[in-house]
Amino acid sequence: MTVTATGVGARIPIASALDPVTLILKLVGDVCNINCYYCFEKRKGGQSDDFDRISIEEVRSALDLMGDRPVAVHLHGGEPLLYGRENMRLLLAELSARDTVTAIQIQTNGVLLDEAWLDLLESSTPAVEIGLSLDGDEQHNSYRVNFADRQTVGQVREAVDLLCRRSLPFGMISVIHDRNVDDPDALFDLVSDIPSLVSLNVVPCYDQGTAPREVPSGNKGLLELIDASDGSVGDSWAVDPQAYVAFLRRFTERWISEGAYRRFNVEPIMSAVRRRRGRAPRMCHYSESKCGHIYTLYPGGRFGSCDELPAANSLLAHDVKKAAATTLDETWATPLGRKQLQVISAPLDECATCSAQSLCGGGCMASRLRMRAVDRAEDYCGYRRAFVFWLDGIMHKLEAQDA
Ligand code: SF4
Ligand code: SF4
């Protein structure tokens, strides 16, 4: 049996001693101040977290476990600003003092962001890079609601204005779901008008077959999402892979033809371009550096691989302080770690004979596991092939024009 990054029996590579890694800090677990319908924390399985904060000792242990690897730290939740300003100040001091920490990013829903928070986030070394979550205008952002089922779009637009007033470069994540997938022009027009935006990630909501851990309280509009055929609740917002390809194509065309690539980066387009050019993609979906390069720490010391994976398949250690006495490689070498690696890596078998492998890079293991569970693995790969071969054709044409 061949053991390569993508052959039959392949395993996701584990970060070698000096490989850069990402450490996601779930500062308050899955606790949030808003109540998005499609929140991926609500459909990952396991119990919802009590309100608890990651301690500085736990962060130290997780960084020790990363060894000498350069670490990009991502501050996540739930909502990471619920960590509180004084706790954040202590955390940023700890991260600033670590030579191995090369970048600090925060992903916030923006509702609590204000001048005082920005002063604090800008004061660390390196300064914290800010990412907001917004899916479009009022209609397209309508899954992102508060606990009274009210839209949050106005508050997020205030955060956008605040960042622009301070000329602070920031990124944005837009989830692509059934309500915005058919209108890529609306999202493109919206983001093109934001002067401080430097990066955008258009993330497909491949929630097929998932269900929230509990029906979000306060979501009165949930009734309209109930699938009448089987009465289930939970994946009505999922995006169809072919619809997402059409979205990506239109977005790419405008991003290139209008020269917007000079102003802001768009993922996954840029990573697909970089892979096509033989350069290292930034995004794990297009890279061999996947779930063995992305780690997550939860309050209470739970430590595992990428937080996109189901809780049961990502756990590597119940107590990061104990795990820190070993090495990252050793956490994967335990019976639990070996089992996780086998489960997470299983979809790579299909890449072994795939004609798109050199352009695609294998996609996201979490999405592929979800799609496999509902017998739609081929739909996922169909989207990957359709996009990377289409992009390859576009790049051939551009290269021919330049020649
Ligand atoms: S689960 Fe997906 S997003 Fe997470 S590291 Fe693996 S490939 Fe990347
Ligand atoms: S299209 Fe599917 S099988 Fe082919 S390389 Fe991509 S993820 Fe693997």
Q: How would you describe this structure to a colleague?
A:
It comes from Streptomyces tubbatahanensis. Residues 17-248 form the Radical SAM core domain. With 403 residues, the protein is of the alpha/beta class. The protein has a single domain, classed as Aldolase class I (TIM Barrel), CATH 3.20.20.70. Helices cover 35% and strands 14% of the residues. The chain contains 14 helices and ten strands. The protein has helices spanning 56-65, 85-96, 115-122, 153-165, 184-192, 241-257, 269-276, 311-314, 320-323, 328-333, 335-345, 357-360, 365-373, 377-402, and strands at 21-30, 71-76, 101-108, 128-133, 170-176, 197-204, 265-267, 294-297, 303-304, 315-317. The protein has a ten-stranded mixed sheet. Helix 6 (241-257) runs parallel beside helix 14 and helix 13 crosses helix 14 (377-402). The N and C termini lie far apart (43 Å). The structure holds iron/sulfur cluster (2 copies). One iron/sulfur cluster (SF4) is lined by residues 284-285, 290-291, 294, 306, 308-309, 364-366. The site of one iron/sulfur cluster has 11 residues, from helix 12 and helix 14.
